# Entry
Amino acid sequence: MSENKTVYITTAIDYVNSIPHVGHAVEKIQADVLARQYRQKNDVFFLSGVDENSLKNVLAAKKAGMDTADFVAKNSSEFEGLKELLNLSYDKFIHTTSKQHFDGCKKMWQALKPEDLYKKNYKGYYCVGCEEFKTEADLCDGKCPEHDSPLEIVEEENYFFKLSNYQEKLLELIENDEIEIIPSFRRNETLSFIRGGLEDFSVSRSKERAQNWGVPVPGDEDQIMYVWVDALANYITALGYSSDDDEYKKFWLNGDNITHMIGKGIMRFHAVYWIALLLSAGLRLPKKIYVHEYLTIDGKKMSKSIGNVIFPQEIIDRYGRDATRYILLSSLPYNSDGDLTWEKMDAKYTADLCNGIGNLNQRVLSMINRYGIELHTFESDPINTAEYIEKFKFAEGLEQVINSVGQVNRMIDDEKPWEKIKSGENKAAEATLNQAYSELKQIASSLDVFMPETAEKMKIQLETLKPEPLFPRIES
Ligand SMILES: [Zn+2]
# Structure
């Protein structure tokens, strides 16, 4: 594991056109686990935030009959509230309506090479959901594959960014893994997208279409920055790029490890657009882009129109905060979508947490108590979750913990210390329970980053030897 380095971890910044659901939550929890893991030996800055400048937000405010600024502030606070709700350890939460962000965006715009920007008339299919123009090849049955809403035909004069100038450089950076795109199938997908030829993209929109919401283009007040330049710049503006702050110098300019964590729907913008913009502005590049898959609900994409959206609070109400972290993390595999249903969540909670970790903790500590077992120093091997976490394999890392719980439970079932005590083989019972105790300690410390409150409770109970239920049974 890396040590004494600076590590900068960012999540995607979400649109605030609605309130956060479990899909938003799981990404933030994954990033939190990574941040907690690195913090054990490194200097970490962990950023999350919201994209408040998107046209989507303006349209959603209109629909809700609210003033845009009020609407945005209300929903942003719901996203910011995830910190408390899910016990996330952000160092900063960026609002893109902030002055610091506006100043940074303007600085970045002005840093772009003049030859990379040009104005042209453009007419095309536009998806408001994605906030981008679509080509025929992007569409599924005439619709955006990400959004069900019909596409608009939009014509206007915009600034364009000459992405084609960066095709060779981007290929080289990704092929040489100077920028790692993880998992590797996402890297390959990006490479073939770049090899297919890069088209220039729009980096501004008219003030009118933007409804005068967003960051004005420096020197051309009739244009507002297009969502991607503005949104992507958050990763540097949040650190104080506009005023060259120490945090910017430490974690970006001279940073050792810069990791963006995002969902698959916005991979292209991070792995291609963002890198090209940074190259044009002469800024340093991130090191890793981790692309997670999606959580589906009973096999379907979460959507307001289907009415199958699950909110983090609902899961917390049923299982508690740490268990919610566990359920969401363990439901999303590294390289494929994960599926949630209440039945699956109940089953996971009962098997892995109540009957798994909770029961092991309860039985080991009560037997040590009841039989007056003397504890000696017995060192078990740590559970190797760090390696999984640093490779973004969160569900797979938790699986290691649950496997270990299963092994210790089976060892106790096989050795039956209660029978050994009855037949006077006290030494044998003592050996088994000492081993179980030390394995339990390792389990508790492996949970530090996944379920910090549970880890803390377990450590206290391992000291006092007074077991308390960690995961209350749920009523079905
Ligand atoms: Zn779309």
